[in-house]
Sequence to fold (341 residues):
Amino acid sequence: MDVKDFYYDLPEELIAQEPLEDRSGSRLMLLDKHSGEIKHHRFSEISDFLQPKDCLVINNTKVIPARLYGNRADTNARIELLLLKRKEENIWETLVKPGKKARIGTKLIFGDGILTGEIIDIVEEGNRLIRFSYDGIFEEILDKLGQMPLPPYITHQFKDKNRYQTVYAKYDGSAAAPTAGLHFTPKLLDEIKNMGVNIAEVTLHVGLGTFRPVKEKDVLKHHMHSEFFQIDEEAADLINDTKKRGGRIISVGTTSTRTLEAAADADGHLKAKSGWTEIFIYPGYQFKVIDGLITNFHLPESTLLMLVSALAGREQVLHAYEEAIRSRYRFFSFGDAMFII
Fold:
C-alpha cells in the first residue's frame, strides 16, 4: 500500500487558521459509507443524524501547554521543548530544538529560573529525557510559562487557550487536541443527551504521532508512536449495552476510535482497561466497535486519513475530499467536520 495513494492537493487558503467564534457553526459533510452519497449541513444540526439508542463516544483528554521556550545554562542559547510523555513525577520525554547539541548533562533554564531542567538521557528517535526542578506545582508553572503546541500549519498563537480544548476536556496529558470534539458546545451536548443518546467518555492522550508525517513509501512499514489510553467500567458498560440493544457506536474523532478498537476483544466487547496503544488503522482493517465517525478533514498522506479510509473506503473518502475542496470547506484542526455513517 503506497503512501501516495492517500495524497490529495489542498489549496493553502483552505487551511483554517482560526477557530470559529461559534464552535458548532462549522460546516458538516455527511458521508454515507455504503453508498458514498454526500450531503452538506451545519454541525449544529448533528443531532438530526443521531438516534435515541445511539452512544456517542468522546475523548476527555486535556491539552497541556506543552511547548516551552528557554535557554541553555552554559551558553544562554535559545532552546525549544515539546513535552511528549510524563515518565515519572519530574521526568518527561521531550522533543528538543535544536537537538544536535542537547547532550546528556545539558542544563536548561525557563522563566528566569522558576523552572530548570537537565537532560538525563537520549531515547527513541533522538527524544530527550529531562528531569525538571521547581518550587510549587508543575502544572501551575507550566500554565504560566508554556504555550499550546499548535500544529505546524497554524501560523500564529492566539490568546484564548481554551479554544484549543474541547468543552469536556478533563484529564491533562495531550500534546494536541482531539479536534473533532472542538465543534461541540455544552448546549449541543445537552440537546443530544435529552433526545436519548448516551455519551460515553474515554481518554487517550494524544502524542507526537499527531505531528509526524508518514515517511515510509510502504504504508505497512510505518510505526505508530504509543499513546496512553483509559476506559473505565461505566464507559465500557454503556458501550456494550448500546451494542446489545442494537444502537450505534458513534466515535467522536480518530483518537476515540483508536481507543475503542485497541481496547476491545475480538468480538468487540469492552472491559475497563488502561495501557498504551500503537494501533495503526488503515484500509483492510475490520472495525470491531464503531459504526460511525465524526471527524475533521485530515492532512494528505496522514495516518488519520488512512483510518478514515479504512471506515468509508479510500476512493469514496478522496472523492468526498475533492467535493469539500470544490465547496470551499475549511480543513484541519480548526476546520469543518465530516460525519461518516
Observations:
- The radius of gyration is 20 Å.
- The chain has six helices and 17 strands.
- The mean pLDDT is 94.
